Amino acid sequence: MAPKEDMLPPGWEDLDRQMGQLFMMGFDGTSVNPQIRSLIEDYHLGSVLLTAKNLTSAEETTQLVLELQTIARNAGHPVPLLIALDQENGGVNSLYDEIYIRQFPSAMGMAATGSKSLAHEVAIATAQELKAVGVNWILGPVLDVLTNVRNQPLGVRTTGDDPQEASQYGVQFMKGYREAGLVTCGKHFPSYGNLEFLGSHTDVPIITESLEQLSLSALVPFRNAIIQGLDAMMVGGVSMSSAGMNVMHACLSDQVVDELLRKDLRFQGVVVSECLEMEALTHNIGVGGGTVMAKNAGCDIILLCRSFPVQQEAINGLKLGVENGIIGRARIEQSLHRVLALKSRCTSWEQALNPPGLPSLTQMQPSHTNLSTHAYNNSISVVRDRQNLLPLSNVIEPGEELLLLTPLVKPLPASAVSLSVAESMHGPLERDRTASVVSGESVFKELGRSLSRQRNGRVLHTSYTANGMRPIHEDLIRRASAVIVVTADANRNLYQQGFSKHVSLSCQSQYSPSGDRREKPVIVVAVSSPYDFAMDSSIGTYVCTYDFTETALQALVKVLYGELTPMGLLPGSINRSQKLYQSRQHWLVENWNEERDSVGLDALLNAVRGDSPHGQRSELLGVASHSFLLRREDIDEAHFVVRNSSTQALYGFCATYFFRSTGTGVIGCLIVDPSRRKLSIGHSLHSRAIRTLLQRRGLKRFQLGSRLPGIYLGIPTVNPVERKRLRQWFANLGWNTALSRSVCSVILRNLTTWVPPEGLAATLQNVEVTYDLVYGWDFARAILDHIKTNARQGVADIYRMALGSAPNCGIIRAKRPFDGVILGSIVIYNERSALAEHMPVLRGTQTSVGGISSPVISPCADDYSTVMQGLILLAIRQIRKLNANAVVMDCVDGDGNFDCLSTMGFSMLHSFEEVNCDAATWTMMHSS
């Protein structure tokens, strides 16, 4: 006989009734439909998920929830329903009512205020409003750490990239929700903060960190929330692939739920699965089987969003699993105990059938309105304003015109849980215009009107798209006296980055009516992710709002016109002057001496090459000691060694370059003898390199990885284990590796038998683009102007070298035929060129080879991939004329380009992560 404390309360003996409590389900429509009624009456459903598609107003939500609870009561449910929804604030609110429900900043916006107490107050207010309409379970807080900020679907739904900060804010949100009477659900365990997206929509995102790496960072907020009494935990539908952990769906894995969450983290609360209506799960396993697997893994509540047939399949699958003995009754009863305990903490029939409703919301309204305004006013962050363009009255007169340029964006996503992870991979889905937040286009129209009203002056407003700069934009820029460019997740919508830079460059070269060159003020405002231009100091005035709700943009207008002093700071590691990790500096670092150290460096390079894992191509193939020496008048070089002064053997080497034209200090290489690692040699070299670069006059930014010379383009990433180790090592030294950008080198082998993809030639003929191959400085001005619009550090230097190395280097241009505007360019070179000396990837290929480098596509190009493929196709044809057997393409930006290249037959040689940071960050670190 079971112990008395494990006995179920009376009325719970029936298996069907037990099982119904172990599901959470949603439904379509804004009123009770036959499907949700049947689930409650016939299947004893215990928890209902409401999403933005169910909710039209606070009043109707209250009535809907009351009706659901009344159905449950009349059907004989012993306890009320759990009514759950997302209300993360910012752009992710399921319940929206402009009269009764207040808008508060996103999680990252709250972190930008720097106030944990304010976060606690906002959480209480959010939960009080939900409690008033009858909701008793909030699916929050988000506890993910954004360990990789680029191309991640969560964005501002997290508090940032710092695990301790995410933990502190997560706990404050959780405590606030509970204080107002709701139960909580942390998400998305074990982490959605660094997902890799591979394959089709039927494949799930992958976590590649090992458990040890997750434990040091991503799991910290989850662990602390558990200690502080988190009620429930949502386990995601991601896969995991690392040493000792290969899981297809985390929420279906006992390794994740029973072992990691229950045993290692000692979580005793309710475990909720991710929605099992994911296409990937349906395709690979089936919902019935997935339900059984989730239950056996340790999930207490299985989530199924809205498809009635699928929901029935899940319930039948669970029942069949019990009948077949796959699932024990003890596990069912254990989950039921947890669910009933959760319900006892947040609801009773008296509460469920008497929601406070509008009278309560009316009473809260004044204080919550003030709290909302206060929170937004404290979140707006001016990251940079080097030329003192703010307030706008500094740079624009009342009678002058202000130009607002905004992207066409989709409506803000509401209920995150109602969208599967697979949907999140492809961006927010379209929603009804009547849903919780209106489209970005409408919001930005209101922003334009607010800007106009506030200054009593004319505001020109137009949108921009992936089609880039158009004549209308150029005309409006010429007319306006100042320009505001809005971006929304530019890291996931790269056209926005190109467009913003194009506008910035265009405004730098404007002329006054008298013919004098006059720089036009440009302000870039990121209205979602703050990482759009966080580390790009070429944007001189940069403001972040963290969401584009109407309340956020009202606060923005006040900041732009000087009515409000911006108080927000970028959350996480970017804005924190953290101390560099100080290792014991017991290694003497000396300046490189070519005559003394060349032989020793060649020996060190051989040792590092020999240490490469079997079957992995070393990045140092083809590199010799002279490969690091540029010997150019416009680039300052300083290289350092740690050596044995008796034997002359080198233990470590570091190459640095200062590119005067852009003010960029670059660490191009840092290598240590494999037999002498973990002895602080690398720390010593790195510290000397940073101190030397900080002394360069005009230093604006730092970069880890050099495109010229192209030896290490950044942190090597081919070996995942080594990549993680190096990222952590450089992060400990102060580099913000979360803001890395991918860059790679690729190769096309068997050139003699290669044929272009079917239909490519025809596609290129149908596009209005002309191509030519040019050599020498006569073409420099137009090409270098084009390069400025969209190229990363080092690319311009490669083009300058190519222009000065005719006839062994040339440049292929793609041009618009009717006006000659350059739409794209690419460098082409042979083994005899000066450029080949600094591109060892070319010499390391043991065959006759030609080189392509640094494609640059203009924001004006209508079809990015077509122009890119056209340039590459012509380059391949030119190299083939030289009787080469292969083509190597280096310095390729990896953000979305590799798919285009692989269809043309290229395969990966080396991949890297290029890391940038503002010089001011290092200055603070070394002065603090």
Protein described:
This protein is of the alpha/beta class and 928 residues long. The chain folds into 4 domains: 21-362, Alpha-Beta Barrel (TIM Barrel), CATH 3.20.20.300; 380-560, Rossmann fold; 590-732, Gcn5-related N-acetyltransferase (GNAT) (Aminopeptidase), CATH 3.40.630; 755-904, 3-Layer(aba) Sandwich (Aminopeptidase). It is 36% helix and 18% strand. It is built from 31 helices and 32 strands. Strands 20, 21, 22, 23, 24, 25, 26, 27, 28, 29, 30, 31 and 32 form a 13-stranded mixed sheet that branches. An 8-stranded parallel sheet has the order 12-9-7-6-3-2-1-13, with helices on both faces. α6 packs parallel to α8 (220-227) and α11 (287-297) crosses α12 (308-323). The protein is globular. The model is unreliable at 1-5, 412-438 and 577-585 (pLDDT under 50). Pfam families: Acetyltransf_1, Glyco_hydro_3. Residues 15-341 form the Glycoside hydrolase family 3 N-terminal domain. It comes from Penicillium alfredii. Belongs to the glycosyl hydrolase 3 family.
